[in-house]
Write a structure and sequence with these properties.
mainly alpha
């Protein structure tokens, strides 16, 4: 998986209004980011992205967990699912 900092740069490039990207460049960057969300390792990006100071990165982290739950919840081990349903100590 691409390093977290590289993904943060991609997110900032794709969603920062000051970047003035062409439609083609924006679609390409979004496509790269959506491909990352499909990978099993994307589960591990959620918390670091939610804790990032940039709201675009935070949003992408929130969107990633929504995508992972919708598409990949069925592949998680039952013990992991149980931890997700448990209340924090």
């Amino acid at each position: 998986m691409v390093a977290d900092q590289t993904l943060v740069k991609l997110i900032l490039q794709a969603y920062a209004p000051a970047m003035n990207l062409t439609l083609g460049d924006q679609k390409r960057l979004q496509g790269e980011l959506f491909e990352v969300q499909k990978r099993p390792e994307a589960w591990g990006l959620v918390i670091p992205f939610l804790q990032h100071p940039d709201p675009n990165v935070q949003f992408f982290g929130a969107h990633t967990i929504q995508v992972k739950i919708t598409r990949d919840w069925h592949v998680l081990q039952p013990s992991v699912k149980l931890m997700c349903h448990s209340k924090p100590p």
